Every structure is written in C-alpha cells, then in structure tokens.
Amino acid sequence: MTIEYATPYRARSFIPPEPGRPYFVEKGMGDRAHLFGDMFTVYCGGEQTENTFNFFTCEGPKGDVIPSHSHPDTYEVFYITGGAVRLFVEDTAGEQYERLLTEGDFGFVPKNCPHSYRIERHHSRIVGVAAGPGGTFERFFENFGVPTDELTLPRRPAVPTPDKFGSVPQRFDVRFLPEHRWRTGDGRP
After folding, report:
1. Taking the mean position of all CA atoms in its chain, how far away is CA 105?
2. Please, where are the H alpha helices in the chain?
3. pLDDT tens figures, 61-71
4. Could you report how far apart the first and last alpha carbons of the chain are, in Å?
5. How far, rounded to the nearest angstrom, does the alpha carbon of residue 120 sit from its chain's CA centroid?
6. Which stretch of DSSP H or E encloses residue 130?
7. No. of H helices and E strands in the chain?
8. Cupin type-2 domain: from which residue to which, for each copy (predicted)?
9. 105 with 80: CB under 8 angstroms?
C-alpha cells in the first residue's frame, strides 16, 4: 500500500512534500501529468532531495519530435526501459548528435545543450533523472501539461495554452528554442 499526502501543489500525492522522509511508491503511482501525447510520472523531486535531483518516467506512443529546448542549469539523463527513442543533442560547440536508443541504452545531455527526442515505437518508456545547480524541473510537467490521476496515455494530446509558453518554462529551467534546426540525418522539425 502506498501512503497518500496532501502537498502544496496537489490535493493528493504519493510523494511526501518534505525532505528526509523515506517512502515507497507502487508502479505508476507517482505524480502523473499528460503533456502532448505522453504521460510523465514523477517519483521523486526537489522537495524530497533538497533540489539536488529528480526521478521520473515518460511513456508515450510513436510520435513527433518534441520541441527543441535546453536547461541552462540542469543536466538530464535518458535511460530507455522499453521501446525506442531517438535523442537529438547539440553540444556547446554546435556539433549535433543523433542516436536511436533502445531498451537498456543511456543518453546524457549536459546543461545548456539544445536537445529533443522522438518516440519511435509505441509503448516506449524513458526513465529520466535531472540534476544541477539550478535545482530540478519535475513540476514543469504538471504545470505545463495537465495533472492526471489516470494510468494511461492521454486520449487527446495535451497541448499547452499559449500563455503557458510565456511563463511556465522559465520557472522550471526550460528554454524552448523555436528557431533551432537539427542538421542530423533524421532530425525533422
């Protein structure tokens, strides 16, 4: 059984709102949000780790490239536990990399590096960890997308309203790069 907590950002959560407390979360029962066609589940974040790292999953169908973005103060890892995900990354010198990651593969994105990804197979899953001097960005998903108690992917894409693009990303160390273009082999915008 998973314990429920009331938190400052959710009426119901399985993650305690304060650091220093051990806890356990059953599969899929973290704080969930739909964003675009994907479901993000946060299992631990800044509140529990004194803003040192977060741990989340992203599940989704085969789809489009998510918007290019960077995190000026956050390092991000992608570990694929199912399916296939194409990761696009540009280093600080401007060299671009593209890699198809499948189950068991790992990708690392340094802070301040433009990146994007595209889920290549239905039912793919990414395990993500983000850490850095600027804290963590796990609350971005529910503030930019739509919080949900559902255990499934969104029935319709959860597309953020235009006003969210202007305010939410900056609060969570996310910088969208609408003019960014991928020059790699399969980096279609």
Report:
1. 17
2. 46-49, 140-144, 162-171
3. 999 999 999 99
4. 43
5. 17
6. strand 124-131
7. 3, 12
8. 61-119
9. yes
- Band of the pLDDT at 131, cuts 50, 70, 90? very high
Q: Is 47 helix (H, G, I), strand (E, B) or coil?
A: helix
- Is-contact 92 112, C-beta < 8 A? yes
Q: What contacts 24+ positions apart, CB below 8 Å, involve 122-125?
A: 122/61, 122/62, 122/83, 123/59, 123/61, 123/82, 123/83, 124/59, 124/60, 124/62, 124/80, 124/82, 124/83, 124/84, 124/85, 125/57, 125/58, 125/59, 125/80, 125/81, 125/82, 125/83
Query: Residue 11 phi/psi, 5° resolution?
Result: -70, -25
What residue type is assigned to position 12 of the chain? R
Task: Give the tens place of pLDDT for each residue, 173-185.
Answer: 999 999 999 997 6
